[in-house]
Design brief:
With 138 residues, the chain is an alpha/beta fold. The chain is built from five helices and five strands; from the N terminus they run E-H-E-H-E-H-E-H-E-H.
């Protein structure tokens, strides 16, 4: 049986405390390996635009140290950067959800009430990776 690798995840979050807690939570509770992080729009785009920095999942906050998560989503879509895109924010209003979905976000989660849903989403992504691996295998 082939082991399915963890979901390679990049996080765009400007709060070091939230980034540390989110990283620890995801790596402990979900099949996730955080491969990088950025606290602003420019840093995120700079890292993610490099092909050798591929991520299966990109988690983006809306409000950043400089720039916005909306700007990150817009640029990733324009550049055709691969990977699932998830927004994790305290500002998950209906209007913000609509904007993010229009810019290519696959899901939007509220930081204060939907962290368990994010963990389940990561588990589902990993499970789909397992299904793809078993289809490709012998």
């Amino acid at each position: 049986m082939v082991a399915v690798p963890s979901v390679r995840t990049f996080i765009v979050e400007d709060s070091p405390l939230i980034l540390d807690r989110l990283t620890a939570t995801l790596e402990e509770l979900a099949p996730v390996r955080v491969v990088g992080a950025a606290s602003d729009e420019t840093g995120a785009i700079s890292w993610l635009a490099q092909p050798e920095h591929a991520a299966d999942l990109i988690i983006v906050d809306i409000f950043l140290k400089s720039g916005t998560g909306v700007g990150v989503l817009r640029t990733l879509a324009r550049l055709g950067v691969p990977g699932k895109r998830v927004v994790l924010t305290n500002y998950a209003t209906p209007a913000m959800r609509r904007i993010c979905l229009e810019l290519g976000a696959d899901r939007i989660f509220d930081k204060s009430s939907e962290l368990e849903d994010l963990v389940a989403y990561c588990e589902d992504l990993h499970g789909r990776g397992a299904a793809e691996t078993s289809r490709d295998g012998p």
